[in-house]
Write the structure tokens for this entry.
Amino acid sequence: ADRLNNTLLDQAAGDANATIRNWAARLTGERQEASEATHQRLLKLAADSDPSVRLAAATAVRQFTSGSLTVNTPPANADVNPGEVLVSLVANSHRSDDRTLHFLIWMAAEPAIMRDVPGTLNWFVNEGGQYMPLTGKLLGKMMRRICDTRDEAMLSQAVEALGGLPAGDRPLLAAALEGLIEGQRGKALIPAAGAVDIVARLSSDADMKVASLAQQLGTLWGDARALKASLALLNNNSAPQADRIAAIKSASQQKSDDTRAALMQLMGSAAADALKTEAVRALMVVGVDATGPKLLEQWDGFTPAVRRAVAELATTRWQWKWPFLGAVEAGKINRMEVPPTVIRTFATSKDDTERAKATQLFGKFNQTPAEKEKLIAEKRRIVLSGKPDLAKGHETAKTACRVCHKLHGEGADIGPDLTGVGRSTLDALLANVITPNQIIGAGYENVVVETKDGRSLSGRLVEETDSRIKLVNLGPTEFVIGKEDIKTRTVSEMSLMPEGLENLPDEDFRDMIWYILAPPQDGPLTDEKRRELIGAEADSASTHAPIDGESVALWNPDWRVIAPEFEGTPKKHPEYGGRKNVLETHPFDDNKPSALERVFDVPAAGATLTVETAAHERGDWELRIFAQGEVLKRQLINRDNGTWQTVTADLGKFAGKRIVVRLENMAGGKDDWSYEFGYWGGVELKPGGALQASR
């Protein structure tokens, strides 16, 4: 970048090839030369018709507004004012549904926004409405960011500015209020009285959505009128369920007798399970010693879903634990109705008497490795007996797996995405299902928090700011906790995924396992694929560290990794050979390759597959590219001409079709079965001539 001058970069910015214009933006950001020429070039690139060029321009602006791409640090040149370029990016991208582009525009704008909050608010008030929906997303994020500062004066200024939004900009105002509500969760920051009054007026706004959101926000701030309206709404049977749930969430921030009474009234009504479950979660926060026993009195009238929520509530405070255990011991609660997650909480308690009572009531919690291996062997025989019903397996997986995991876009984001991890073979999947605590991937640890008011909460840490953290658990259930309310915070050695799925009826277990192994989106379950899936794992006596399958999945969730555990692979390297985010694989044996698979809808205009690969410095291997089982290319991968090789394959003959693409790491070359490690630096599918990166 240092060897380029403004003339060359200006020529590149005007090139007919979008890739060249993309590089012009990237190199402009790398140079960080604050000049009028740079400003005009970025202004032009920000208005480019190609979204990939605008994305590169946003990245370049971020390099000017902050000294780091991912962490807020002071800019190299504090005098740089990127406002005009940012406005151009917004104006030319507001109708796009490209979430990555929108996020990078926010990343570019955020440092500049927080350096001039008054000026930015003024722009949103006067200009923001014409660039919806993108400005709504940006203003909502800005409100959250302001809440994170815990600056009462800045929050007051922001709310007062929102009061000046034109009547025609109610969708923009609603987006801002949503950002404020999210930013206030965990620990409300109350602004000046004038700002509170503005929100109180908005709770009577003619726009129903604005009025509802203002009412929720006022409830969070303790406004008596707003709280009274929220409590009435949550028990209003004629109100939409979504509005009632929002009212419950807002009311849960106010630990008052009126709030508890309204929530208990809802629990005694004929309300839907979703409402009662949300009410139980609110009672976890606002409940008192008598709350747990009162809920247990209604146990027989609850559905299984609500019983599960009440059982989980019982584990969060010691005042609620013993009444629950007593009800189980007395037979008022059937032991078989107690969820595995609840049993685990009691069985792993720090309190000796709780653990002893759990063992008495529920039996031994942890099985020995030998018992687990025997159970896996038994379940393997069950899975391989009879013909699976994938439709029934899909239904079982919805309730047993997708409350936490995604598979081909369906499900929740609590655990790893199963599309690309944990199901490469039957043995791998059974081990993950039956022994979930064996390997807990980085980023998926179970964080346990004890609060100063006596609650015990746990879940995966998905967000952390200077003032709060957010945990997600089964359900999905969210806990937003202010840091000043935390007494202790630890990382558990237990996975969030509960044990016990092996207790499903044999037929349901078999159907579920086969659905996860071979869902219809992966193509038909042929005899060859079945043999591949039930193949034995690599030598379990390997002395290498356990495979971090979740990290492998994060290499690229779109691609399914089919590879044995061989000398520490499959493995994701943060950096290898000058490339970032590199996957390493190895064949099963000299006749059976490891592979990457993905379902891809080829556009009518065709597509090109580009693969960046490398070999071990002491070995070589053969790359094979298949589409719908047809060999498109075979190429030897070695280091004769450098570390990395780029291989392409034309998918034009499959235009307009949904196909399965398979990339194989096959033993081959000069020395078969000698350092046949494959390194995958990047896999790109370029449909219709427009780049769509798969990572």
